Amino acid sequence: MSSTANRPVCILISALGGQGGGVLVDWLVSAARAEGLAAQATSIPGVAQRTGATTYYFEVYPRRDDAGARHFSIYPAAGSVDLLLSFEPMEAGRAMAGGLVGGETTVITARDRVISTAEKVLPGNGILDAAPVLEALDQLARSVQTIDLRTAAEETGAAPNALMFGALSASGVLPFGYEACRAAIAGSGKAVKANLAGFEAGRALPKTAPDPAAAEGAGFDPAPKTLAAEVEKLPMPVQAMAGHACARLADYQNDAYARLYLDRLGRVAAVDSAENGWRLTQLAARRLGAWMAFEDVIRVAQLKTRPGRLARIRRELGAPAGAPLTVHEFLKPGREELIGLLPAPFAPLLGRERPVVYGRGLAMRLRTTGPLGWLSLRLLSRLRGWRPWTARYRQEQAMIGQWVDAMLAAAREDYGLACDTAELAAWVRGYGETRHRGFRHIGRMLEEFSARLAADSAALAESVRAGLEAAHSDQDREVKP
Amino acid sequence: MNVQAGNQPAVAATGLGMERSFAHEVEKLKLGAGDKFEGEAIVAVTKALLQSGVAYVGGYPGAPVSHLMDVLAEARGAILEPMGITFEQSSSEAGAAALLGASINYPLRGAVTWKSIVGTNVASDALSNVASAGVKGGVLIVVGEDYGEGASVIQERTHATALKSSIPMLDPRYDMGRLVELTEQAFELSEAAHLPVIMSLRIRAAHMTGSFTCKDNRAPEFSPHNPLPGAIQTTDTIVLPPASYAQERDKFETRLPAAQRFIVEHGINEVFEGRRARLGIVLQGGTHGSVVRAMNLLGATGPDGETPVPLLVLNAIHPLVPDQIADFMKDKDAVLVVEEGNPAFIEREIREILHRRGLPCRLRGKDILPMAGEYTLDVVRRGIGTFLNEEDNGKDGLGPVAAEALEALDAARAETRAALDATAPPPRPPSFCTGCPERPVFTALKLLQRERGKFHVSSDIGCNTFSTLPPFNTGSTVLGYGLSLASGGAVAPPLNQPAVAVMGDGGFWHGGLTTGAANAHWNGHESVLVVLENGYASATGQQHVPSTGSTAWGRPVKLSIERVLRSMGIGWIRRVNAYKVSKSLRALRAALDARGQGLRVVISDEECMLARQRREKRLSATREAAGKAVKRERFGVDEEVCSGDHSCMRLSGCPSLTLRRGQDPLKDGPAAVVDPSCVACGLCGEAAHAAALCPSFYRARTVRNPGVLARLRHRTENGLLRIMGAS
Fold first, then answer.
1. Predicted pLDDT at A353
2. Is A363 in Cβ contact with B689 (below 8 Å)?
3. Please, what is the angle between helix A391-413 and helix A432-446, to 10°?
C-alpha cells in the first residue's frame, strides 16, 4: 500500500469506564495542538456509568507542513493502527479480534486482568487467562509492552492513565516529544504534580511485566511436624496436598482430626495405583481436606479473631497505626448453624428442606474492634473442643464416610467413576442456603450408591457425570438439581 | 423567567444538584469574532446555535447530545439570559418538539435536541404538526444518532421521519468548520423552505475534537428585551381541514422545492472532482471521512490525499435534488452509493432518478455494502474495494491495487483468527456503577424470584435497563422510556400474578406518570411499580429531573413523586431506603401479596452514587484540609472465610467486588476481594444478611483527623483488645 504514507499516525485506546481514558486523550490532543500538528480525537465513551468497555481513537499528522492531506477518520481501521494502548489485556484481545492489531501495531497493554461480571458469577474458577491473548499479540503485533498496571499504580501512587501516557510517550510512536507531553499534563491544571510523577514512572516501566497471576498462585503449607512422617507414607504425588490439608485440619481441630483425614485418604490410596498416576488419591486429598474443614460458626469465629487480622485490615484501608479503626462483621447464623451447635442427638433436625424466605432471621453486626464483640467471637471459637459432640459434626462425618465408601466401591468397578465421585464433593460449598442445598444434593447422589453400582454401573456413572456438570454450572437456585 | 441570574439560592439546602461543572465549556461559548474555538463537536454546534441568533433552545438529554443541554444549562445565567434566549430542559422530547410551535407564527429562530431514534419517536407528534403548519423563524433539531458501536437504543435511522414529515435533513461532513457553517445555514434553509430542519450527528462525531474560527454571538431580534409586537392567530397554520390539505400540497409543491433550490444555491452538498471521471460515489456527508480514508488505505489516493473517484457529498440527505444527482451521474459508467442504515432511501431515490431520466449509469450500493449495521471504516473500505475491483478493473484501473489491498486484509484477518485460536474476550457491557443505589433493589428482586419462582418484570429505559444483564437477569421487556408499567398491563392476567414494573425517576416524569401510573390505576391493573428515585436522569450524565430538587441551573423546585401518586388516589405506597435489601424484600413481598388492591408502588430512594461521590469527595477534601474529622470506609472480605462459591457476585455485580486468585489449594474458586474503589454503600453486608450468604464480609472504617473523644475511645478499646490478645 504505497500511498498510506500520507495518512496520520493512528492510536487506539481501549479502556474500561472510570480508568481515565478520556483525560489521556485530552492530553494527547493538547500536546498535538501545542506542537502545531493537525490532530483529531473521538470516543465511544458509552453511557455515564463507570463500567463497561470504552474506546478512544486519536489521529495526528506527524508533520506541520503536510497541509492538504489532513483527512481524518472517526474510525480506526485494520492495518492502520500504529499503536494500541489497552488498560486491560482482554480489551487488547477485543481490539485484536476486531482486526485492529497487525504487523504495523505497537501494543502497550496492562498485564493484570480486570475481571468481568461474566467471569465473576461462575462458581469455582471462571477467570479467563490472559496468556493466550498476549501470545497472540506477540505473534501479530510489531512489538508488545506489558505493564502490571495495578502494581505500578500501587507502587507509585499514580493514576493508571498517567502511567499509560508515560509508556505511550516512551514508545517512540508519537510525533511529538517528551516536553510536549509534560506541558499537556501541566496545562490541564488538574492533579498536575501526581500526574507528572505518574507520567515519569510510566516512561520508566520495563518492557515486560511478570504475570501477576503467577505471584498470586496457590502455595502448600507444610504438614505439622507431628504428622510429617505419616504424610510421607502416602504416594509421592499426593504428599504436598495431604500435608497442606493436615496443617489445615490440625489448626481447625487437632492432630487427631488430621490423622482421621490421613486414615481416610490411606484407604483411598489403597485402591489406587501408580499406573493410574494416583489420580483418584490426588482428587480425594484435596476434596477430603476441604470438606473436613467445613466452616461452622466455631471456625468462622476462629478465623475472625486471629491475631494480626486487624493489622491486615488496617493496611488494606490505608489507616496509619494510631488512627481509630472500626470493623463490623456481618454475620447471619441461620437455624441450621445454630442447631448444628447442639449435641449430636439433634442431628436429625438438620438438612430438612424448608421453604426459603430471605431477609429474616438473626442478622448480626458485630464490632470486632470493640472488646465485647471481639470477646464474644473469641469465646465462640473456644467451642472448638465441643465440636466433635455437635450435631453438625456428626452429620458431616456421616456424609463424608458415605462418600469415601462410594469412592472405594466405585474404584473396584470403574476408575473414572471413582474420580467423578471424588469430584462430587464440589457440591459441598458455600454457606447458608447454598451449602444446605449442595449438601442435600450430594446426599441424593450418594444414596444407595453400592446397590446402584451393582445394578447398572453405566447408568450410575452417567448420573454422577451429570451431577458433576451441574455442580460446575449451578448458580444458586437458577439450576434445579 | 422570573429568576435572576446571580441571585440563585444555594442548592446545597436540598443536598442535590450542581455536582458537575461545565465552566470550561461555557467559556468557549463566550468566544467572539476571530477567536479560535477548540473542543468537541457537540459544543461547537452549541456555539453555532448562539451565532445563529436563536431565541429559544430546549431538549431532552441523551447521549451523544447531552452535552449541548448540560453546557447551555450552566451558561444560562452568564450568556443566555443577557442575550434574551429562552432555555428549558424539557420533561420529554415531545415537550421539546412542542417548543418549536413558537416559530410557526413568529419570526423566532429556535433549536431543540435529543437522542434519536427514540427521542424522535417521542417527538414525532409535534414534529408532524410543526412541519405541516410550517415555520416563519428558522428551526433546527439537532439529533444524536445513537447508532452503531456504543449505541443504547433500537437500531433505526432518523431518515424515515424526515421523509414522512417532509423535514429537510442534514448529515454533515465531519469537518469542524464545515459543521459549524452547516449548522448556521440550517436556519436559513429552514426559513427559505418554511420547514423545520433536522441535523443528525453520529456518536463518534459528537465527541470528535477540532477547531474553527468563531463569529460573535447574535442575540435574537425578539426577546424579553425587545418583545414581539403581539400575539398572532390564523387558521392557516392550524392542522384542521381545509388548511391541513393546503399545507400538504404546499409542502410538496412549494416548500420542498424551495429547500432544493436553497441546497443548490448555497452549496450545501459538495462535489469533489477526481481524475476517474467515469466513476463516482454518492455519500452521506457523515461518511465522508471514512470514504476518503478507505480510498487512501486501498492505495487509490494520490500524494495529495485526494480521492481519484469523484464524490457527491450529500450534506443534505433530504430532500435530494434530482438535477444535481443527474448532473453528477450523467457521464459516468458506475456510481456507488454509500448509505448507512436501511431502508436505503437515497439509493432507491437515485435509482428512480436514473430510471426517469433514462441515464445508463450502473448504480451500486447495498449489493456490495452491508444491508444493515454501522458503516465503519473497515466496512466502507471493503465496499469501495469491491466497487473499484468490479468497475475499474482495466489495465490502469484502480481495481487491481484495491483487490490486492483487500486480499492483504483477508490474509491478515485469517492470521488474526489463527493467532487468537478461538480465544474470545469476555463481554463487558456497561452496568451499575460501584455503590449504585439501584443494584440492591435488583438483589432484592432476584432473591424474591428465588423464593417464589420467576415473575414477570418489565424494565424501563435508564441505568435500570442493566438489570436485564447478568448477574441479575431481571426484566423481560423494554418498550420505551416510562413505559415499563404500561407494558406489563396485558401480562399480569394470563400469568395470573401481579406484574412488576421497574422505572427510574427520569422515566416516571418522562411519561411514566400518565402512561404508566394513571393508566394502571384507572384501569385497575394488578401491578407493582418500583420507582428508583435516585434524583437524576443518571444514564445520560446526572441531568436533573423534576424531583431532583432544583433545575439544572440551580433554581430550587421539587416535584414529589409520592405526593403526585397519592393525589391521584393511589394509596398503597411504600418508601424504602434503596440500600436496605431486607426492607426492600419485605416491601416488595407485601406489594406482590396485596392482590386486589390495584396499583402498588414501592419507591426505592437513594441518590445516584456517581453524583453523590462527586460532591462528597470535594467536601471531604476540604474538610480534611481544614483539619476536620473525615470518615473513610470500605468493605472487605476475609479470604480464609470466603468459600469461592461466588454467591455474593451473583447478587451484586459491583465492579469493586471482584476476584483474586486463591492462595489456598484446597479451594475450588478464587476468593472474593473488595478492591479499593469500594465506596462502602453497604450492599455486601446487606446481601450477606438478607441471603444468609457468607460471614466473610466486614466493614472497616477509619477517621482522618479524629476528635479527642474518638481518639480516647480508640486508645481504650485498643488497650483492652491487646490484653485479650487481638493484635
1. 75
2. yes
3. 40
pLDDT at A29: 97
Question: Number of folded domains in chain B?
Answer: 4
Same-domain pairing of B640 and B569: no
Strand partners, B279: B334
Look at residue B554 and tell me if it is in a domain. Answer: yes
- By residue range, what is the domain housing residue B279? 270-413
Q: Which of A12, A37, A49, A379 should we substitute to test contact with B (largest number of B Cβ atoms within 10 Å)? A: A49
Question: Both B672 and B582 in a single domain?
Answer: no
Q: How many structural domains compose chain A? A: 1
Asked if pLDDT for residue A346 goes beyond 60, the answer is yes
Question: For residue A412, which phi and psi values (nearest 5 degrees)?
Answer: -70, -30
pLDDT the model gives residue B15: 44
Closest CA to A16 of A98, A115, A82, A101: A115
Q: What is the predicted pLDDT for the residue at B292?
A: 95
Band of residue A350 on the pLDDT scale cut at 50, 70, 90 = confident
Asked if pLDDT for residue A480 goes beyond 60, the answer is: no
Residue A26 inside a domain? The answer is yes
Domain range for A65: 2-216
| B73 in any annotated domain | yes
Residue type, A297: V
Cα–Cα distance between B225 and B54 in angstroms, integer? 14
Please tell me whether residues B455 and B601 are part of one structural domain: yes
CATH number of B643's domain:
3.30.70
CB contact under 8 A, B700 and A118: no
Is residue B710, in this structure, part of any structural domain at all?
yes
Q: Is the pLDDT of residue A48 over 60?
A: no
| A364 or A1, greater pLDDT | A364
Q: For residue B428, give the nearest of A116, A310, A365 by CB distance.
A: A116
Q: In degrees rounded to 5, what are phi and psi of residue A85?
A: -115, 115
Q: What ipTM score was computed for the predicted complex, to two decimals?
A: 0.94
Q: What percent of chain A stands above pLDDT 70?
A: 94
Quote the minimal CA–CA distance from A456 to chain B in Å.
31
Contact A91 B428 (CB under 8 A): yes
Give the integer Cα–Cα distance in Å for A181 and A188. Answer: 11
Same domain, B78 and B152: yes
Residue A478 scores a pLDDT above 60: no
Task: Give the three cell numbers for residue B184.
Answer: 448556521
Confidence band, pLDDT 50/70/90 cuts, at residue A217: low
From A455's Cα to the closest Cα of chain B, the distance in A is 33
- The stretches in chain B having pLDDT less than 50 are 1-17
CA A369 to centroid of chain Cα atoms = 28
Question: Which DSSP category does A275 fall into?
Answer: T
Residue carrying the nine cell digits 479473631? A305
**If DSSP codes are grouped into helix, strand and coil, which group holds residue B143?**
strand
Q: Are residues B92 and B77 in the same domain?
A: yes
Contact between B611 and B16 (Cβ < 8 Å)? yes
Judge if B148 and B193 occupy the same domain.
yes
Give the C-alpha distances (Å, rounded to integers) separating B509 from A189, A384, B162, B598.
Answer: 38, 59, 27, 21
Name the residue in chain B with its Cα closest to that of A480: B450
We report the CATH number of the domain holding residue A24 as 3.40.920.10
DSSP B161-197: HHHHHT--EE---S-HHHHHHHHHHHHHHHHHHTS-E
Do residue B337 and residue B409 come from a single domain? yes
In a domain, A174, yes or no: yes
Over range A94-102, report the average pLDDT: 96
The number of beta carbons lying within 10 Å of the beta carbon of residue B349 is: 18
Give me the mean pLDDT over the A466-478 stretch: 73
CATH of the domain at B483: 3.40.50.970
Residue B433 lies in a domain: no
- B612-644 CB burial, b ≥16 within 10 A, e <16: bbbbeeeebeebeeeeeebebbbbbbbbbbbbb
